[in-house]
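Request: How about a record?
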Amino acid sequence: MTEQEFYDKLAQAVIDGEGEIAIETAKAALAAGLDPMACINNGLTEGMNRVGDLFSSGEYYLPDLIIGGDAMKAAMEVLEPALSGNQEREVLGKVVIGTVKGDLHEIGKTLVATLLSANGFQVIDIGIDKSPADFLNATIEADADIVGASALLTTTMVVQEQIVEALEDAGLREKVKVMVGGAPVNQSWADQIGADAYGEDAISAVDIAKKLMGL
């Protein structure tokens, strides 16, 4: 295969949600001497962005988005260890993301994390059922630029407000931007609690994060 054919096959594996093919192609690309960074940028990221476009247009549904993300992550596990020390991916910003305390929903948060990672952000996914202190500690440890807090229940939305307050109390609010999202969340709520942005879905979250970083 030519170099471009490798990229196209990696992209198509993500679009089709074929994790095994993505892994095999990534291994074959490395064996052929291809640059792992180019495989990520020209293959996997292109494929994941196409999946995002198909989801936005209504041609793909949530399961398609999930399996596409899984395929990308599977191939990334092959390619990232092959990156040389001076060849790390350009990082647009560091994002701490999680689902708030009392909420066990994971899919939406994970999709946002996957798409942000695909588009050049360093993502620290702290998981589900996380307290304001958990978010704060992860933000400090990672020296993060953005905090993404997901709440899928009306009863847990208040934790998003507590996260903003925790960052303020720690003197980090000027430095760290806060994105909120989740089914019951809207722009009005984001404005009310002093968040910097509201993301309606995983696709819009990428553009919002870039804007928050001034890109």
About this structure: The longest helix spans residues 36-56. The chain has a mean pLDDT of 92. The radius of gyration is 18 Å.
